[in-house]
C-alpha cells in the first residue's frame, strides 16, 4: 500500500471521525459476539471439531465475513476471551448496540455452539443462561431458542 494512501486514510479519519465510528462499533460488536462464542466452544473443557466448524460458519454467516476475516476475528476473540475476567465486558457491548432481536440472535448462536457436538454440557447450558440474563433475554425466549435450535438439529431439547 503506498504511503500516501495511509496518510489519506489518516487525514480522512481525523477530519470526518463520525464516518469511521460505525466501522469501529461494528468491529467492537463482532469481537464481543465472537468472544462469547469462543468461550462457549471451550467452556466444557474440550473444543470439539464440530464446535470450531460451527463457530466459523456462524461468524461468516452472521457478519458476512470471508475466510481470512473470520480467522482474524477468531484469533482476536480468543485473546480477548482469555484476558476477560467476566462476561460483562462482552455483554455490555452487545446490550448497547443490539436491539432485543439482535440479543436473541446471540443466544441462538450460543445454543448452536453448545449443540454442535450434539451434547449440551451443563457448563454450556449455564453459560447461555448467564449471557441471556445479562442481555435481558427472558427465560421463556432462552428456552424457546434452545428448542428451536434442537429441533433444527434433530435433538431433544430439555428445558
What's the main sheet like?
Answer: none
What's the rounded overall pLDDT mean?
88
| Low-confidence spans | none
Number of DSSP helical runs? 8
What structural class results from the helix and strand content? mainly alpha
Shape: globular
As a percent range, the share of strand residues is under 5%
Q: How far is it from the N-terminal to the C-terminal residue, by CA?
A: 54 Å
Give me the strand/helix succession: HHHHHHHH
Strand tally: 0
Helix content: over 70%
Radius of gyration: 17 Å
Describe this structure in words.
There is one protein chain. The protein is mainly α. Helices cover 79% and strands 0% of the residues. The protein is built from eight helices and no strands. The protein has helices at 3-15, 17-42, 49-63, 67-83, 88-97, 100-115, 122-135, 139-153. It is globular, with a radius of gyration of 17 Å.
Give the topology.
Blueprint: H1 3-15, H2 17-42, H3 49-63, H4 67-83, H5 88-97, H6 100-115, H7 122-135, H8 139-153
What tags apply to this protein structure?
about 160 residues; mainly alpha; 8 helices; globular
Provide a quick synopsis of the model:
The chain contains 8 helices and no strands.
